[in-house]
Amino acid sequence: MRNIKRVIIVGGGMAGLTLSLTMKKRGIESVVYEQYDHQQRLDTGLLLWGFATNRLRDLGVDMDKAGRFLENIEIYGAKNECVATLPVGQVSREHGTGSYEINRRRLIELMGHLAGDSLRAGHRCVSTHTDGNTAVAVFEDGSTVEGDLLIGCDGAHSVVRKSLYPDVELEKANGGGWGAVLPFHPPGLKEACHLDFWQPGTKCGMADIGNGECRWYVNMREGGPSSESRNKESALAAPKDPHPALVEAIESTDDRLIWITDQTYLKPLPSWHKGRVMLVGDAAHASTSHAAMGACTAITDAFELGHMVASDKSAEEIMQTFEDERKPIADEVLKKSKSGLSMSASNSRIWAWFRDMAFRHMPEKQAKEIAEKMVLAQESDKDSAH
Q1: Which of 8, 192, 360, 367 could, after both became Cys, cross-link 147 (CB 3.0–4.6 A)?
Q2: ∠ at Cα 52 (51, 55), nearest 5°?
Q3: pTM of the model
Q4: Which residue intervals of the chain are DSSP H helices?
Q5: CA distances, 109 to each of 113, 236, 266 (Å)
Q6: pLDDT tens per residue, range 296-340
Q7: Alpha-carbon distance 382 to 267, whole Å?
């Protein structure tokens, strides 16, 4: 007999909706409380690897509506010459999956539609606690809701985490950057392709994200933008020798479409759960964007937890099993993300020359192996983490 019959989910992003859809498929009642009553005002883009999109497809998400199947990642070295091509599409097809460049807003809209009445927008949670065998969420208007479990999927600035660990704050890492989603496809960008530009002190890129859109980004190894530098002139000034295709995209950008970010992370928590309250995704293990695995890890977290909740285990057994399986993987992602852009954005000309030479002469088999590690990352990490 199932011990968990009703779950409260705080946060209606990718993790919260993945969790809700997984439990819906397994017959568990859940309600997702999202603080905002509207979608994000700025479109953002990201890459989801095959191990994460497999989970979303299983839940009925049409990935081709959310973004574009990724064929290749082309890496450009310090002299703006292509030094390697990673065959992501080929590897994905061989393993029956697909890695996608997506528009985050489109994906959330698709998932929200699937969630239906389970998603409650405009409900800002201000605190949580456990009362005996019941989890309680308190909202800004003074109302409360109760459930057998409460899962905090409310991101890096988690209110649920603050209830469990009042003194824990995000740590500041080096770097920051700019980015934007453009409502058109610039001529310099190949279809179904991600271009990575490795420049001294910066890692930049642009990608086809489907639906006639593209995204670009500029990440700095040290320093970063301020609110006053949220403009294309500042983004263009960061790389020493920006690739012409990137210049074309940034120069075509309306400043109102540009977002800026700094790099923060969360030191490993002693535990992801207390009482009947549990943390998932960035609420539990926020990492910098350098590892490009944060969203994928959150989706996988939520999917795996959703299936565990449907078991006949007790609430404590479910939470502890989940943490035992997922925390070593998340800790490894954090470790990699903190290494920053040491390889791709090195300021050393000698290092960059050797790096580019090594990639230029990399055998096709090795390029395929690198792509395979990214596409299937946490499928293999699950085995190696224990």
Answers
A1: 8
A2: 100
A3: 0.93
A4: 14-25, 50-58, 63-66, 88-94, 104-115, 159-164, 232-237, 244-251, 282-285, 294-309, 315-338, 349-360, 364-375, 377-384
A5: 6, 32, 28
A6: 999 999 999 999 999 999 999 999 999 999 999 988 888 777 666
A7: 21
